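Risk register update: the risk of archive-format incompatibility is retired. Evidence:
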Amino acid sequence: MNLKAYYKKLRAVEQSLTEPFAVLESHETPDGGKEGVLTEVPKHLAARMIAEGRAHIASDEAVKTFQEKKAEAKRAADQEAAAAKMQVTLVPADIRKANRGGKD
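Archived output:
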């Protein structure tokens, strides 16, 4: 492997990426990588994965779908966290009557 050519390609790909994070679509790899998996990664890692031929930049439509799914998953996780924080106290009726002075 020619390291000069590799790092030159790596720098060129990194300079072509404008955003700090990129959504990549994976390629199938001999070590078990699955094709079509979308992942959001930092710019330097995206450049490395593209230069090594493990992924390519996802299409605009795929990015939009990925962001929508990510936002929905965040909303669901926030709702689940809020539900887990909710506290309920059950008070028996006779104790409640005693606290009110027998009036109910």
